[in-house]
Design brief:
With about 450 residues, the chain is α+β, with helices and mostly antiparallel strands. About 20% of the residues lie in helices and about 30% in strands. The chain has helices at about 115-125, 130-155, 205-215, 275-280, 295-300, 320-330, 370-375, 415-425, 430-435; strands spanning about 5-15, 15-20, 25, 30, 35-40, 45-50, 55, 60-65, 70-80, 85-95, 95-100, 105-115, 165-170, 170-175, 185-190, 215-220, 225, 230, 310-320, 335-345, 350-360, 360-365, 385-390, 400-405, 415, 440-445. The radius of gyration is 23 Å and the shape is globular. The model has no long low-confidence stretch (mean pLDDT about 90).
C-alpha cells in the first residue's frame, strides 16, 4: 500500500435527514451553496431540497467538497447506540457526504482521508489532552484495526474466506459481532467499530501531532496487518481473540497480565471456575486498577465518567426484573430465572458460554457480547462475572447479584491500563509491545 486510503464511514440512518453545508459542495453539475438541506426517500427516489435547489434521483447522492477541509453539520446523530449513554447530538464533519439506500432508509456516509479520520477517532475515543504516548499508541492501533478490516472485507467479498458469526440450535445460540455486519461502507461511527464524532469533539494540537508522528505506522504480525482491538478495561488480564470473535487464534491477541513485567502471560488460569471466582472477588493490582480521576478523564468522555466501578463492579436484579430483561433481549420466555451457569470461560475470566436455566426454558448463550446484551437493558459491563442468589422461594431466587470484572471485551489494548502506562513514562512502543505481544511496527504508506 503506497497511498493513504479514502474511507467510507457510515454515520447514521433515517427516513429524513437534515444537514447544513457550512461550505459549498458539488453534485454532478450542481453547486450547492452554504445553507440548510433535507434529504428524504420516497419509494425509490431520493429528494434533496434546499434554498434554490431540488434534486430528485434514484441514484445515490454524492456531495463532493471543493477543498479537503470543507465541512457539514448533521442533525440528530445518535451516539452510544443501545448503550446506557445513548443520546442524540448534532455533529460536524469534514470531507464528502453520500446518501445511499439501506433497508428502506437513508444511510449517510462520510468520505474522508484515513489520517483525518484518525484525528477524530482519537479525540472521540478519549480526551484530546491525553498523554502523548497514549495518543500515539491509539493512533497506531486504530489505523491497524481499520486497514485490517478493509483487507478482510476484500477477502470476504472476493469469496476467498467464508464468514459466519452465528451458530444456532434449539438449545444454544452462539453469536459474535464484528464489522462484517456492515455493507456499503468501510466502518461505522459508533462503538460497534470505533467512536467517530467528526470534528465535533475537540481535536487538539496533541492529537494532530500524535497522528502525524505515527503517520502510516501499523502493527504487523504473522504476515498480515494486525487486527488490533481495544476495550475500556481488561479487568487485570486481557482476553484472547478467538474467545470473543471468530474461532481463529491470533498470536498478537492473546492473554496478557496488565502489570510488569510487560507482556507477561497470566500465571493463573481463569478458565477454571474456582480461580475465576477468586479473581473476580478480589481486586489485584494492575495498570487498569486505578481511581485517579486525572488519568480516567484522559480515556473516558464525560458520559463515560459516570461509570466509576469499572475494574470490579456489582449489579443487582430482582428475579422478576432479570427474567423480564432476558425475555425482552433474547426473545425467549425462560419463565423465572433459576440459575446462570458459566460453561466456558476465557483467559480473562470472561464467560464464553453461559447456561441460563429458567422455570420454563433452559438455553446456552455466547459469546461475550451476546451474553452482555441478554443480561442488561443496555450492555453488561463485561461477561467476566459470577452470580449470587438470595431470597429463595423454593428453587427460584428472589434476587440475583452479578459481581464482575472489567469493562468491554478485554482483548488487545486496555485503554485505562494504557493511560496509566503513559503517565508512568512508558513509550507508545512499550505500550504496544505490552498489549500486542510479538507484533512489530512498520509503515503501511
Amino acid at each position: 500500500m503506497t497511498k493513504q486510503p479514502i474511507l467510507n464511514v457510515g454515520i447514521m440512518t433515517g427516513s429524513s435527514i437534515d444537514f447544513v453545508l457550512e461550505t459549498s459542495y458539488h453534485h454532478n453539475n450542481n453547486m450547492l451553496a452554504q445553507g440548510s438541506y433535507n434529504v428524504e426517500l420516497k419509494g425509490r427516489k431520493f429528494i434533496l431540497q434546499g434554498e434554490g435547489i431540488l434534486i430528485i434521483t434514484e441514484d445515490e447522492i454524492a456531495l463532493i467538497p471543493i477543498f479537503r477541509s470543507n465541512s457539514f453539520l448533521l442533525k440528530n446523530v445518535t451516539i452510544g447506540i443501545a448503550f446506557h449513554w445513548e443520546q442524540k447530538e448534532d455533529q460536524r464533519f469534514t470531507g464528502g457526504i453520500r446518501f445511499i439506500r439501506e433497508n428502506g432508509l437513508i444511510r449517510v456516509i462520510n468520505t474522508i482521508h484515513l489520517e483525518d479520520y484518525l484525528k477524530s477517532v482519537i479525540s472521540s475515543e478519549m480526551s484530546a489532552n491525553s498523554s502523548p504516548e497514549l495518543l500515539k499508541a491509539h493512533s497506531v492501533i486504530s489505523r491497524s484495526w481499520l486497514l485490517a478490516q478493509i483487507e478482510k472485507k476484500k477477502l470476504i467479498e472476493g469469496k476467498k474466506i467464508v464468514f459466519n458469526a452465528n451458530s444456532i440450535s434449539n438449545d444454544e445460540i452462539i453469536r459474535w459481532y464484528d464489522r462484517e455486519d456492515h455493507q456499503g461502507f468501510d466502518v461505522c461511527a459508533d462503538d460497534h467499530c470505533q467512536r467517530y464524532h467528526g470534528i465535533t469533539k475537540i481535536i487538539s494540537a496533541q492529537v494532530a501531532e500524535a497522528v502525524n508522528d505515527t503517520k502510516g505506522e501499523i502493527l504487523f504480525a504473522d504476515g498480515e496487518i494486525c487486527d488490533a482491538r481495544f476495550s475500556k478495561c481488561c479487568g487485570g488480564i486481557s482476553e484472547s481473540f478467538e474467545n470473543n470473535w471468530e474461532p481463529l487464534r491470533k498470536s498478537y491477541l492473546t492473554a496478557v497480565t496488565d502489570r510488569k513485567p510487560l507482556g507477561t502471560a497470566p500465571d493463573i488460569d481463569l478458565r477454571h471456575e474456582d480461580e475465576a471466582i477468586r479473581w473476580i472477588e478480589h481486586s489485584p493490582g494492575a495498570f487498569c486498577n486505578t481511581s485517579d480521576k486525572n488519568i480516567l478523564s484522559q480515556v473516558l468522555p464525560d458520559f463515560d465518567q459516570k461509570t466509576t466501578d469499572f475494574y470490579r463492579w456489582r449489579v443487582e436484579y430482582s428475579a422478576d426484573e432479570l427474567s423480564e430483561i432476558i425475555r425482552e433481549k433474547s426473545g425467549f420466555d425462560f419463565g423465572k430465572i433459576i440459575r446462570l451457569e458459566p460453561l466456558e470461560r476465557g483467559y480473562s475470566g470472561r464467560i464464553i458460554r453461559l447456561r441460563i436455566t429458567g422455570t420454563e426454558k433452559t438455553m446456552v448463550v455466547g459469546k461475550e457480547l451476546e451474553i452482555r446484551k441478554w443480561l442488561s437493558r443496555s450492555h453488561l459491563y463485561s461477561s467476566a462475572f459470577l452470580a449470587e442468589y438470595e431470597e429463595y422461594n423454593g428453587e427460584v431466587p428472589g434476587r440475583i447479584i452479578l459481581k464482575g470484572a472489567g469493562w468491554g471485551h478485554g482483548s488487545g489494548l486496555c485503554q485505562i491500563g494504557a493511560a496509566v502506562m503513559g503517565e508512568k513514562g512508558f513509550s507508545y512502543r512499550q505500550i504496544l509491545e505490552h498489549y500486542f505481544r510479538g507484533a512489530t511496527l512498520k509503515p503501511a504508506y
